[in-house]
Design goal:
Number of domains: 2
CATH class of the largest domain: Alpha Beta
Protein name: Sarcosine oxidase subunit gamma
Strand order of the largest sheet: 1-7-10-9-8
Pfam family, one: SoxG
CATH superfamily of the largest domain: Probable tRNA modification gtpase trme, domain 1
Number of helices: 5
Organism: Streptomyces virginiae
Distance between the termini: 49 Å
CATH architecture of the largest domain: 2-Layer Sandwich
Largest sheet: 5 strands, antiparallel
Structural class: alpha+beta
Strand content: 25-35%
Length: 197
């Protein structure tokens, strides 16, 4: 018998509520899940030959400055630690991306783990995006210290997230949140957004 498993996003149930809050805000906010983005955790020596090979295979350099992100096409590499990155790609490219990184690393000391099922991504955009996130995030979200090219592992409403500003200020933010906390975070975002609708 064929496998008939259906994949469900952690926040599929919140799509209608996100859409309603977006409409009610009059364009000041947009909340949406970006389901099934591929997320591959990479650990390796940034000065070793495996790092150079992985960068070449991805067409993307691994950022070496703390709390930075590099984008190239539909992929991003987020700095998580001195020897750790999260490579984010489009839905459906999980096996290809992880294999490409493993093959490039070759025999070098590297750990490559597909963590796509561990997290989902929430997009928060609009004129009030920073104000909304400031309600529950301890970081200074002003574009000067935390603008494009930055990322941070932080908390939002006590939930651990990876926060990534997306391009110019109106492009908003990605919130990468563990699937087990996604429902809680969606409820918090919708409650906090009620101030702007």
């Amino acid at each position: 018998m064929a496998d008939t498993a259906i994949r469900h996003s952690p926040l599929g149930h919140a799509a209608d509520r996100f859409a309603a809050a977006t409409r009610a805000s009059g364009g000041d906010l947009r909340l949406a899940e970006l389901p099934f983005l591929v997320q591959v955790n990479v650990r390796l020596d940034p000065k070793g030959p495996a790092a150079d090979a992985v960068e070449l295979a991805l067409g993307l350099r691994l950022p070496l400055e703390p709390n930075t992100v590099v984008h190239a096409g539909d992929r991003s590499a987020l700095w998580l630690g001195p020897d750790e990155w999260l490579v984010v790609g489009p839905p459906g490219s999980s096996a290809d991306l992880a294999h490409r990184i493993r093959d490039a690393a070759g025999e070098g000391h590297a750990a490559v783990t597909d963590v796509s099922a561990q997290r989902t991504t929430v997009l928060v955009t609009g004129r009030r995006a920073r104000d909304l996130l400031a309600h529950g995030c301890p970081l200074d979200l002003h574009p000067r210290p935390f603008g494009p090219g930055r990322c941070a592992q932080t908390t939002l409403a006590r939930a651990q997230v990876v926060l990534v500003p997306r391009g110019e200020p109106r492009a908003g933010f990605w919130l990468l949140v563990r699937s087990s906390f996604a429902g809680y975070l969606a409820d918090w975002l919708l409650d906090a957004a009620s101030e702007y609708v």
